[in-house]
Amino acid sequence: MDLALLDDRLAAHGEPPFRSRQIWEWAARGADSYEQMTNLPVELRTALADEVPFSSLEPVREALARDGTAKALFETADGRPVETVLMRYRDGRRSLCLSSQSGCPLTCTFCATGRMKFGRNLTVSEILDQALHFRRSDAVNHAVFMGMGEPLMNLDNVLAACERLPELGIATSNTAISTVGWIPGIERMASEGPPARLALSLHASDDSLRSELMPVNERYPLPDVLAACLRWHEARRRQVFVEYLMLEGVNDRYEQALELAAALVPRKAFKLNLIPYNPTDAGFRGSGRDAIAAFRAVLEGRGVRSTVRLTRGRDIDAACGQLAARG
Ligand code: SF4
User: 94-97 and 81-88: which strand pairing?
Assistant: First the structure.
């Protein structure tokens, strides 16, 4: 819900300051209407239902994958599309993939979102309403800002939303903010110290290939990005998650594994995650299982441990890089 509008309307009704908090607590616990907020006067519940929409996002469509992954497409009040994914794991993890922008200005070539028209940064309420939507059905406990957009270009709103996620059940240590290497944002995360985790979408360890895949690399070259990540690691004393999409014939060769191993120093600063690529209409193919295993073995031989991410929600275009592919 639009929390600024809520405060405004509560003040107009002469309500005490604690009302806003009461209402938020209901929403954070999964309430789906003002009607359920039984410690609010009935007249106030009725007035709020008329004056403050319960969510700043209108659900447009929802899809459920065979593996339980759910994807929701929303529209903001000014008609911007926003997508959010909930991944359900057998071990009880309920992990949200949140969007920070509608569309994305950074045009990474492998990414469906980057091919959309960029809309705008999402507000704090629009970020939280994605999480609240799924909180109504699931006990969510993890969140990653890996949906639409570059979160560090909207860092004020992302951090303000992160501050409230624990009230939904998502500890800040279970929240990761992912970046393609937006250095001013990484620096701020290092100096201001929000306890959220940092994830770097690396995808190529030589500068020219990285610039081809991710034009942002022209602005912030990889050595500078890795140096900024190391400063974050030193300040926060946490490992940087490194995400590496496996693209067949593009970044999955033997010598590229060696280059990647050479880039990730010191080893203790990074935790590498290899990501099978999910098809979009961007013209790339994902590396096969054997190619990923061979790449991983080369890394292992150089002392770089890695995990291979489970692919979730592929049949509903909810997997990594697929948001906005087809809606
Ligand atoms: S990968 Fe991330 S930063 Fe790049 S275009 Fe897609 S959403 Fe934007």
Answer: antiparallel
Active-site position among 108, 111, 229, 320 = 320
Handedness of CA 39, 45, 51, 56 (dihedral sign): positive
156: which residues sit within 8 A by CB, 6+ positions away?
none
Q: Which helix (H) or strand (E) holds 20?
A: helix 18-28
Does 326 score more than 60 pLDDT?
A: no
Give the model confidence (pLDDT) of 233-261 as tens digits. Answer: 999 999 999 999 999 999 999 999 999 99
Q: Report the separation in Å between the CA atom of 299 and the middle of ligand 1, taken as the mean of its atom positions.
A: 26
CA dist 225 and 242 (Å) reads 12
Q: Is 320 a catalytic residue?
A: yes
pLDDT interval class at 116 (50, 70, 90): confident
Pair 89, 98: CB distance under 8 Å: no
Say if residue 122 is in the same domain as residue 271. yes
Distance 111 CA to ligand 1 centre (A): 6
The residue annotated as part of the active site, out of 43, 58, 83, 300, is 83
Q: Which amino acid is at 319?
A: A
Lining residues, ligand 1, CB within 6 Å: 104, 106-108, 111, 113-114, 148-150, 180
Range of the structural domain that residue 145 is part of = 56-316
Helix (H, G, I), strand (E, B) or coil at 87: strand
Task: State the total domains in the chain.
Answer: 2
Are 25 and 168 within 8 A, CB to CB? no
Residue 126 known to be catalytic: no
Cα–Cα dist 177/96, whole Å? 12
Domain CATH for 201: 3.20.20.70
